[in-house]
């Protein structure tokens, strides 16, 4: 294990790291865990969603129909504020990793809002996100719905326990559609079904070694579970 860590440290010295990394994926796939590990490995600042600060989220999970719009607008305002703070600094000098991509914010809105709510949301969105900076690398973590449900249940966050499989399936499909067309930044699509990026050092370091070679375009990483 120590040798793996030493090998990663040596590898980082040989590469020009992306200055702004965004990690994305549906609930339960492990994006925040990966973002924090990357920040630790690269000595980056983190830019995190802070879902626990959204006072409408628990209501949304219990009753999606009534809670969707305020939940979505709160996240939009929160993320926009974070992006504005990011732009106040020198993005070309400061290095960060985020567990969200502001461009995909409409993805959730399209899944959860009715037509009138969506029009209102899109009007607000268009006014707030014009100057959002582009990442130097986007990492999109994928996993089947049943894997997401199992991970959500295992991590035991109380307000998430009422999340339904149908909602996760819709979210998974929306992510797939979004990233099928995404080309605003280099993209690494990771099949996270059989790997443990939170506690398996080999799984994590194999992913980092792969991503260090990405400079442009779209890439697919489909690892097998390590023994």
TrEMBL record:
Q: What is its EC number?
A: 2.7.1.-
Q: Where does ATP bind?
A: 25-33, 151-155
Q: What class of enzyme is it?
A: transferase
GO molecular-function annotation terms? ATP binding; deoxynucleoside kinase activity
Domain Deoxynucleoside kinase as annotated: residue spans: 21-210
Instruction: Locate the active site.
Output: 99 (proton acceptor)
Supply one GO CC term from the record: cytoplasm
Enumerate the Pfam families for this protein. Answer: dNK (PF01712)
Q: Which InterPro entries match?
A: DCK/DGK, Deoxyribonucleoside_kinase, DNK_dom, P-loop_NTPase
Entries under Gene3D superfamilies matching the protein: P-loop containing nucleotide triphosphate hydrolases
What is the name attached to this protein's record? Answer: Deoxynucleoside kinase
User: Is Kinase there in the keyword field?
Assistant: yes
Per UniProt, the keywords (alphabetical) are:
ATP-binding, Kinase, Nucleotide-binding, Transferase
């Amino acid at each position: 294990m120590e040798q793996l860590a030493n090998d990663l440290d040596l590898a980082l010295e040989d590469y020009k790291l992306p200055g702004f990394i965004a990690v994305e994926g549906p609930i339960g796939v492990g994006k925040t865990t990966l973002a924090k590990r990357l920040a630790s490995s690269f000595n980056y600042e983190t830019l995190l969603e802070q879902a626990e600060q959204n006072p409408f989220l628990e209501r949304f999970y219990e009753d999606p129909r009534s809670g969707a719009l305020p939940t979505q607008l709160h996240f939009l305002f929160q993320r926009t504020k974070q992006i504005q703070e990011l732009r106040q600094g020198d993005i070309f000098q400061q290095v960060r990793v985020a567990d969200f991509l502001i461009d995909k914010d409409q993805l959730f809105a399209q899944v959860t809002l009715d037509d009138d709510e969506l029009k209102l949301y899109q009007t607000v969105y268009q006014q707030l996100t014009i100057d959002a900076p582009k990442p130097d690398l986007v990492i999109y973590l994928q996993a089947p719905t049943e894997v997401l449900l199992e991970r959500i249940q295992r991590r035991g966050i109380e307000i998430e326990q009422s999340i339904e499989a149908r909602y996760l399936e819709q979210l998974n499909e929306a992510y797939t559609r979004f990233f099928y067309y995404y080309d605003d930044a280099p993209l690494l699509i990771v099949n996270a079904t059989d790997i443990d990026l939170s506690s398996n050092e080999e799984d994590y370091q194999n992913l980092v070694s792969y991503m260090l070679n990405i400079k442009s375009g779209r890439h697919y990483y489909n690892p097998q579970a390590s023994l």
